[in-house]
Design goal:
β12 (427-431) and β13 (436-440) form a beta hairpin. 17% of the residues are buried. α4 (148-160) packs parallel to α8, α5 runs parallel beside α6 and α10 (307-346) runs antiparallel to α11. The strands form three sheets. This protein has a five-stranded mixed barrel. Strands 7-6-8-9-10 form a five-stranded parallel beta sheet, sandwiched between helices. The chain has four domains: 5-106, Nucleic acid-binding proteins (OB fold (Dihydrolipoamide Acetyltransferase, E2P)); 112-266, Response regulator (Rossmann fold), CATH 3.40.50.2300; 307-395; 402-440, no CATH class. The protein has helices at residues 11-25, 63-66, 108-123, 148-160, 178-193, 220-228, 245-249, 257-264, 268-303, 307-346, 352-395, 397-402; strands at residues 28-39, 46-51, 56-61, 77-88, 93-106, 138-143, 166-170, 199-206, 233-237, 252-253, 407-409, 427-431, 436-440. By secondary structure, it is an alpha/beta fold. Its EC number is 3.1.11.6. It is an enzyme of class 3 (hydrolase). Keywords: Coiled coil, Cytoplasm, Exonuclease, Hydrolase, Nuclease. It is found in: Cytoplasm.
Length: 446
């Protein structure tokens, strides 16, 4: 090895010698650990990190060897692999070149997650299922102020419901400080909600990441704090496949931050379309109703006759009855005279004085009966005429005017039926039950 500055190694020579030393001294080894950050580029190689609770090492499984591995190789899997310790010279990265991979059971993190999940589930910490206000009056968001999650949430809220009242409480969402910070913020929000009842929903969110990145949301104390929160909580942590204890403890779980925003507020564009559809249906129904009423009014107008026409018909009928009565009376008198003449001739050879007296008496009786019949007939006709006049008067517009109504006419004598047929300042004539009034339009009402 060179010992003088003049004999200094280049970086590439140093990395080369280091690689050779690692491969020569350690050779092929078996290593057990947990998979993390598994990546499968288009080249067919598999890159990943193998770790335990104190250290980690980068690993590569090249395509020629990857096709012989039956294990699915997912984040969190506990595996044993055989490989050679080496160094990637261009970057000086220490790595393990894997030759074979065997499954070694669930990773420690997943095992701890399952144990804690079962414990909290048995205690009832996952029993929350309160409905969220829709839309919330004030939305409180616990998230990183610089993360992609808060940008996605705010973008969706702005597009769907711009009037949303949103307050961001910035907290760390990764690392050892994340869970205590979220617990403290959640407690503070619950205490403040007693003074400000408008606050009604808390959203806890962050973007996707590895199991280690999301581990703060599997904190037992955070799950309990969410369970005991007075304010309803929605959790949206990671991607759709990511599930944390915070998701189980929350009242509602959303698969992504964007999906959470979509569930929290309505889509104003959809509501506007629905409102426009209701408005169109209302207008169509109103138009149909107006058309039906207009047709009904035209039908009633066609049936309505002018009182003068009704009176004229009644007069004609009365004249006809009078003529019929006169003819009947004349026929009756003629017939009675003929009978009297006949009887006179028949009685000529008899005791004329006695017969004359008898006929005179009979004639007087007939005349009295005839006179009485005429009086009764005339009285009945007068009664019918009076009833017809009362009936006609009941349907007469003039009778309606007599009850306090009025007919408005313009200066041309046209009847005014709607307020929009007039203009402010226009002179109108009001026909009342008795007399007329001249008025001026001051204001129209609909």
């Amino acid at each position: 090895m060179p010992s003088l500055a003049s004999n200094a190694l280049s970086v590439s020579e140093l990395n080369k010698r280091s690689r050779q030393a690692l491969e020569r001294d350690l050779g092929e080894v078996w290593v057990e650990g947990e998979l993390s950050n598994v990546s499968r580029p288009a080249s067919g190689h598999i890159y990943f990190t193998l770790k335990d609770d104190r250290a980690q090492v980068r690993c590569a499984l090249f395509r020629q060897r990857a096709r012989f591995v039956s294990a699915p190789m997912r984040d969190g899997d506990q595996v044993k692999l055989r490989g050679k310790v080496s160094l990637f010279e261009p970057r000086g990265d220490y790595q393990l070149i894997a030759e074979a991979v065997q499954a070694a059971g669930l990773g420690e993190l997943l095992a701890a997650f399952e144990r804690l999940k079962a414990q909290l589930d048995e205690e009832g910490v996952f029993a929350n299922a309160r409905p969220l206000p829709f839309p919330p009056r004030k939305l409180l968001i616990l998230s990183s102020a610089s993360g992609a999650a808060i940008r996605d949430v705010l973008a969706v809220l702005a597009a769907r419901w711009p009037m949303a009242d949103v307050t961001l409480i910035p907290v760390p969402v990764q690392g050892s400080e994340a869970a205590p910070a979220m617990i403290s913020a959640l407690g503070l929000l619950n205490r403040q909600s007693r003074l400000d009842p408008e606050r009604d929903v808390v959203l806890i969110t962050r973007g996707g990441g590895s199991l280690e990145d999301l581990w703060a949301f599997n904190n037992e104390h955070l799950a309990r704090a969410i369970f005991h929160s007075r304010l309803p909580v929605m959790s949206a942590v990671g991607h759709e496949v990511d599930v944390t204890l915070a998701d189980f403890a929350a009242d509602v779980r959303a698969p992504t931050p964007s999906a959470a925003a979509e569930r929290l507020v309505p889509d104003r564009r959809s509501l506007l379309r629905e409102l426009q559809e209701h408005d169109a249906r209302l207008r169509r129904a109103l138009q149909a109703r107006l058309q039906r009423d207009s047709q009904r009014l035209d039908h009633l107008r066609a049936r309505l006759r002018h009182p003068g026409e009704q009176l004229a018909r009644q007069r004609l009928h009365l004249d006809s009855l009078a003529k019929r009565l006169e003819r009947a009376m004349h026929q009756t008198l003629t017939h009675s005279r003929a009978q009297a003449t006949q009887l006179t001739r028949r009685l000529a050879g008899q005791d004329m004085a006695r017969l004359h007296q008898a006929e005179k008496t009979r004639t007087a009786q007939l005349e009295r009966r005839l006179t009485s019949a005429m009086h009764h007939t005339l009285e009945r006709q007068r009664t019918r005429l009076s009833a017809a006049a009362r009936e006609l008067n009941a349907i007469s517009p003039l009778a309606v005017l007599g009850r306090g109504y009025a007919i408005a006419q313009d200066d041309k004598g046209q009847v005014i039926r709607r307020a929009d047929e007039t203009t402010p300042g226009q002179k109108l004539s009001l026909r009342l039950g008795e007399g007329r009034l001249s008025v001026e339009v001051k204001r129209r009402f609909r």
